Amino acid sequence: MRHSSTRISAAAFRRVGSLRGWVEMAAGLALVALLTEWVHWAFSAPSGLRFTAGGIYVAIATVVLWAWPASRQGLGWANRVTLLRAALIAIVAGVVVYPEFIQRHAEGIAALSLLALALDGIDGWVARRTGSSSAFGARFDMELDAFFIVVLCMALIALDKVGAWILLIGLARYAFLVAGVYSPWLNRSLPESYFRKTVCVWQVSTLMVCLLPFVEPSWATAFTLVAAALLVLSFGRDIVWLWRRRPVGDIEL
């Protein structure tokens, strides 16, 4: 009986966690809806933004719920800040398919992106202050960063400021994950790196600056080439570190 009651309690605990997760994701969707309506009212955005921004947020929320740990009851304050950032990024991503709107309101899109970038520093601070750091939160934050970079790259392509090659910056993270499927030694956990974090912020900052109307395509290309070079250096450092520690038989270098 004791084992049976334990299993029932564990199952109930997982259901509570899942329910709270759904509630928090729904709150995020409501925020996206409010932000979208404000953009419509203030800037006469295309009506399709409701579907693009909402659809992108739903996709993000679905991935978060799929990865939701069984032991987690709620997001916690740090992850709620990250969820707020996801809502802002969903709006930015939603307008990417409307190049003319971006051209008219590039400063506003850059400002929204800057707010999302600022929140990227706040969620880590909140996690440390509240003692709520977790592997789930770190992964949520990292994958959202990677998606945000892809969105900004697509925005620059939509504005005809750079060529499609810039997607190499946005897709680098995903190429690394695919490579890990064929070379499992790439899946080893990496140590904390200030350089890696700085390069990530540099990527986002560079892409946001290039959105601004006064940045000519030639300058945007130059800036993003520098960003791409730093990204290659960052990935190169990590790959070398992983290569030197890859397992060879039962011996690890």
Number of helices: 9
Compute the CA-based radius of gyration.
20 Å
- Number of domains in the coordinates? 1
How many extended strands?
2
Main-sheet strand order equals 1-2
Report the average pLDDT across residues: 86
Beta-strand residue percentage: under 5%
The run of helices and strands is: HHHHHHHHHEE
Distance between the termini: 50 Å
Low-confidence stretches: 1-17
Structural class: mainly alpha
Biggest beta-sheet profile: 2 strands, antiparallel
Helical content stands at: over 70%
> What coarse outline follows from CA principal-axis ratios?
globular
GO cellular component, one term: membrane
Protein name: CDP-alcohol phosphatidyltransferase
Keywords: Membrane, Transferase, Transmembrane, Transmembrane helix
GO biological process, one term: phospholipid biosynthetic process
